[in-house]
Amino acid sequence: MSIIETEAALHEAHRDNHTHRDVNGGWLRPAVFGAMDGLVSNLALMTGVAGGAVSQQTIVITGLAGLAAGAFSMAAGEYTSVASQRELVQAELEVERGELSKHPADEMEELAALYVSRGVEPELAREVARQLSKDPEQALEIHAREELGVDPDDLPSPLVAAVSSFGSFALGALLPVLPYLLGATALWPAVLLALTGLFACGALVARVTARSWWYSGLRQLLLGGTAAALTYGLGALFGAAL
User: Fold this and answer.
1) If you placed Cys at 79, which of 33, 131, 162, 236 could pair as Cys (CB 3.0 to 4.6 Å)?
2) Cβ–Cβ < 8 Å for 170, 74
3) Predicted local distance difference test score (pLDDT) of residue 23
């Protein structure tokens, strides 16, 4: 194989192995947070009620109500949060677009100064800034990345965030209720299934974040189990006092 062919193969291998996952998408954070929150909050809610020595029907109704209320609350919260963030970024982009239109020379010097601060020679930095500033939209994108830390073409979607959080919360919150819906009459199957789900969710997240699967799984298991135990104790305490 010639040197040129070898270098081409190495370049192609580097390109294939040097791709990155999307870390700016609007679905991962609300989906993960929603599933964890659904599992922990509904498990804690149901164990707290069960600690008060109430009927099985009351526990099931509590779990279903917690599922519905939490899923809608999560979806509304995520939509409002992401929409507000997106609107803020868009407002700042309009400010930057206005500055590029009214003071193009100053903005070009600002960009050149930024490159100089990163080690580029002043003359080269000014030439790069001049060439990049020829296209107003490209200039806006560069200024947005450098000054605001955002990509104007990759802003998170409020709808995606809302749907992701709604579905994942509902799925997570369903696990503690499922054993009762399938005929269970005791609390322990619901707790066991929910804790298994917490460990599985933590391990699954580790595959995305590259953290150790057992560490991530045990962390979620410990947090969820602690919350359930505390609320059960509070439910038993309040139930005895009433």
Assistant:
1) 162
2) no
3) 47
